[in-house]
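Exercise 7.
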Amino acid sequence: MRPETIFALVLFLITYVLMFAVQKIRPYVALASAAVFVIVGSTGLFPGFRYTFGEALSEIDWNVLLMIVGTMGTVWLFIESGMPKLLSDILIGKAKNVLWMTVVMSLFAGIVSAFVDNVATVLMIAPVALAVCKKLKISPVPTIICIAVSSNLQGAATLVGDTTSILLAKAAELDFMDFFVVDGRLGMFFVTEAGALAATLIIVFMFRKEKAPITVSERCTVEDRFPTWMLVLTVLCLIAVSFIPYKDAAAEGRFYKPDITNGLICVFFFLVGLVRRCLKEKSTKSVPAALAEMDLYTLGLLVGLFIVIGGIERAGIIRMIGEALAHLSGDGSRGSVFLVYSVIVWASVLLSAFIDNIPYTATMLPVVAILAQQLSSGGVTVPVNLLYFGLLVGATLGGNLTPIGASANIAGLGILRKEGYEVSTGTFMKYGIPFTLAAVTVGYLLLWVIWM
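Solution. The predicted structure, written as tokens, is:
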């Protein structure tokens, strides 16, 4: 193992141990680790490791950050209008008890997340759940955790649900409908929904004792519905542009959208809502109030993690993982195929719990294609989509194991922290582990049955 790889691996492990041990300082740990990566990479301490400040900035997903800023602002206007309280009143009137309220909110988050970015989904739906829990005087922690993990799960259902799906679609030459049926077989949509059903049963089991009835005596009234329309238009625009490919997924010569399109949409509607509010109040006092709602904790943590993951990628750790998996091709028998398939799925689950699934998926896609060819040379024809979809199941759902394994989880916990709830790693994993294991196991077995 090269010196720069050892350095990156040790620093990465120290970073995550500290973040798991002391959650209050997570952003500072992530940013400090990012700074060390950049300093070492810029000074040439290791000849084989170069990581300048400019390269670190390029690793930051500005689209995600802009989406968080824009959606946070629009959601603040949405909350100020009183609409979440009205929606909570409606939901309380429809649901029988806390159990079914949680199930409904989680399923709704999952459906939206199949077409809208996971982070945006959490930022839009969590405030409604928060309002319901406040009205019922119960802790919102379990409900918002369920919303976050449900949102992360459903990102694999369609081509437009998650960046990893877009990467896979380009590598496997799949279009939007291929996620439903491809080569005469069921695609990722049905596999993901089967996993979501299993995960929902886990939610039902974990909340089985939450039978306290919920009632509403008088519904809140909302006089200003403009922020609600801004939020609705944000969602509709995000869905509409989701059918336009990014540059990496577009065919040569085909129109594509800029990488920060979703972020610009979210910021645009926030600014429209904010300007309209200032004009209505004939004052700019709402500007500092809106800026105060920006969750710097979450933004700082994400920036640090983006740079850290870029550092370990440049140090060769992710490539090393891919090469290790490439040695598992075996003799090409059905047993070897199942072994390789199992390792791809479950290794992806474990790795995605700690590293960003986008660079990992991008690295593994060519490895998976080679593995399918090697395995097929042994006499058993191995559909490459079996390994592709297995990679997607593991890489997308694995982030639900830990609170920092997915941006949606970080956003959800950021909302809770602003409300005064510090969620420990153990508390999150109490829900994340059974949810993930149920969803992944069902998807893992179903894919094997469908494709082999």
